[in-house]
Design a protein that fits this description.
The chain has 85 residues and is mainly α. It contains three helices and no strands. The model has no long low-confidence stretch (mean pLDDT 81).
Length: 85
């Protein structure tokens, strides 16, 4: 009976999909850019820049979430060498 070497198992280096990271990215983007929009509204005496900041912050948070959790894995050269032998 042959035993498998646990070190030969494929190793997944991608970040785990923690929902709190996604939540943090989106909420912090909305809070930061919403606040900056609110400051610009007060300074320029307008009332629409806060909405633009909130939408931009949410979009940036979603983008950061996708870019963090959908990274492509680099080709594993050690795995290719095992297949050749």
């Amino acid at each position: 009976m042959s035993q498998q070497d646990p070190s030969a198992a494929p190793h997944d280096d991608r970040p785990r999909g923690d929902p709190w990271h996604a939540f943090g990215y989106i909420v912090s983007g909305v809070a930061l850019y919403g606040f900056l929009g609110w400051l610009l509204d007060r300074w320029l005496d307008t009332d629409f820049i806060v909405a633009i900041g909130i939408i931009f912050g949410a979009g940036l948070g979603i983008y950061l979430t996708f870019s963090r959790f959908n990274r492509a894995l680099p080709p594993d050269s050690s795995h290719d060498q095992h297949e050749e032998n």
